[in-house]
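seq/struct pair 1
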Amino acid sequence: MDNQTTVFVMLGALLLVGLIIWYAMKQKRTDQLRNHYGPEYDRMVREKGSTLAERELIDRTRRVERLALVPLAPDKRQHYAEQWKQQQARFVDQPVAAVEEADHLVEEVMMECGYPVAEFEQRVADISVDHPQVVENYRAAHEIAVRERTGQASTEDLRRAMLYYRNLFMELLGVGPAPRQAPSR
């Protein structure tokens, strides 16, 4: 073999090793995102395709890392827990008002924790980083609340909305499962 052939073989081998390393790193990132975001990862991939979904999930993670999020102080946690109990009791006689207030309580706790309370889709994106297992509950509760405003939600729908809001609310209070470790990039 002459020198030129040897150089081409070595460059080809280096390129192949580089591609294998690149693929392994990409697969590791995909696995980390899938494990962290769970159903939210699957939903995003269905909607946007894997490349765009992963890019958006990484952007979400980076955005939330820049936020000054803080856990609720014990007295605040107790205060909000009491407010939640009041809304659950209120549901029996005033289900519509209880669901509306549940939505407001979730927003209030999010603000207290340091989440910016912008438009709904941004709130969902931010919450999905630390609470990926209940973010779909938030979407479902919000969708029911929107349907209720047009008179298209039954009492059973409102009951489900309260349960969905409660799951997210309890996680925000720190009563639910602890947030997972953020995926590395």
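seq/struct pair 2
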Amino acid sequence: MRFEQPVRAAASLAVLALLAACASQQPAKDQGAQQSAASSSQTTAPTTASPDTRTAPGQQRPIAGAQVNDPKSTLFQRSVYYDFDQYNIKTDYRNTVEAHARYLKDHPGANVTVEGNCDERGSREYNLALGQRRADGVKGMMTLLGVPERQIETVSFGEEKPRVPGHDEGAWSQNRRSDIVYRKLD
């Protein structure tokens, strides 16, 4: 009985170390695919142009919050959705990430938190690790596009913050996401 607690503690630490290692490493083929996708997206013009936010000296700057909160702006879309058990950014959401990266580059005082989320399937620990990989993937693409790392934080909520309650594919597909949340607008 005296040795039961230290054994449990050691087992818990081993599991946490394993999860941390899994969350911080990507298979080499995934890293290459994400890097080539990010570099190819730099040379391809996005389908939706974002408004130019730079101003000439003496001109008034547009209100940044209005741009981020305008339903007609590409910046209004702030979620990236994933297939089951995946964390790669699908082609459908690259323009969204690129638009936010442009905004962050043009507004060095702006900061975001990328929140990784999962559906309810999988263990709590697995979902926390997967949510972190999803958030880190969005941050990675943004930094490849030139956004300084200091402007982006990542966090995983795993399955703890579902957007849609339910236990079917319709709900799960809405809960497998990364959300780009502006903490500070410039």
